[in-house]
């Protein structure tokens, strides 16, 4: 584990990278001349990189094995990017035009339901003593919220069954995205084990 001062400096640097990634990705998407495939690729990469960096900030202070940390970081990035696959599921088509042309948001873009599920799993993991699984719902929550907050600049957060919040102001989005890993780091309890890469596929 890194010395506290060094750890703080590294976390601060990565936090700045989170903000820069968010702004840079959006700037690229605002450029003229990008076709639908290029836009989808940039958007997906931006979501994934933000998710990856978000969990990197969370994972750095833990005493878990390095392999567990690496696995968690890349898994969070992958999940954050994978969320947009629900566009294709909702469209019942692998055609990109159909996927991005939906009239409503697909199911994985609902914030309230997965948030509730994650909270329930977190509570159960404590009540039932599932120490190995404590971090999984937090990781999923980091991937979901980093994705939803970014999408929320356009249509707000979808809080079914209550409707959607107003669109998130851009400065608030960047600030919330940078603050997210630190909030999770504050409330995530210390656990005996990190996510073990050889058992996670069986769990998920």
Automatic annotation (TrEMBL):
Residues annotated as transmembrane: 41-61, 106-125, 170-188
State the GO CC annotations. membrane
The main location is membrane
Q: How does it sit in the membrane?
A: Multi-pass membrane protein
Cellular localisation: Membrane
- What keywords appear on the UniProt entry? Membrane, Transmembrane, Transmembrane helix
The protein's name? Transmembrane protein 267
């Amino acid at each position: 584990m890194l010395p506290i001062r060094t750890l703080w400096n590294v976390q601060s640097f990565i936090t700045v990278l989170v903000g820069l990634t968010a702004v840079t990705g959006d700037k690229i998407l605002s450029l003229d001349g990008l076709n639908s495939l290029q836009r989808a690729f940039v958007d997906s990469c931006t979501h994934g990189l933000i998710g990856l960096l978000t969990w990197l900030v969370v994972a750095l202070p833990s005493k878990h094995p390095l392999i567990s940390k690496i696995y968690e970081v890349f898994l969070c990035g992958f999940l954050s990017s994978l969320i947009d696959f629900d566009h294709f599921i909702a469209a019942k088509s692998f055609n990109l035009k159909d996927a991005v042309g939906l009239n409503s948001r697909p199911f994985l873009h609902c914030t309230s339901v997965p948030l509730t599920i994650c909270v329930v799993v977190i509570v159960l993991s404590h009540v039932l003593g599932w120490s190995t699984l404590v971090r999984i719902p937090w990781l999923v929550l980091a991937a979901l919220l980093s994705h939803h907050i970014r999408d929320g600049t356009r249509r707000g957060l979808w809080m079914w069954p209550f409707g959607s919040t107003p669109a998130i102001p851009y400065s608030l989005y960047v600030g919330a995205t940078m603050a997210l890993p630190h909030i999770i780091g504050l409330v995530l309890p210390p656990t005996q084990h990190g996510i073990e890469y050889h058992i996670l596929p069986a769990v998920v």
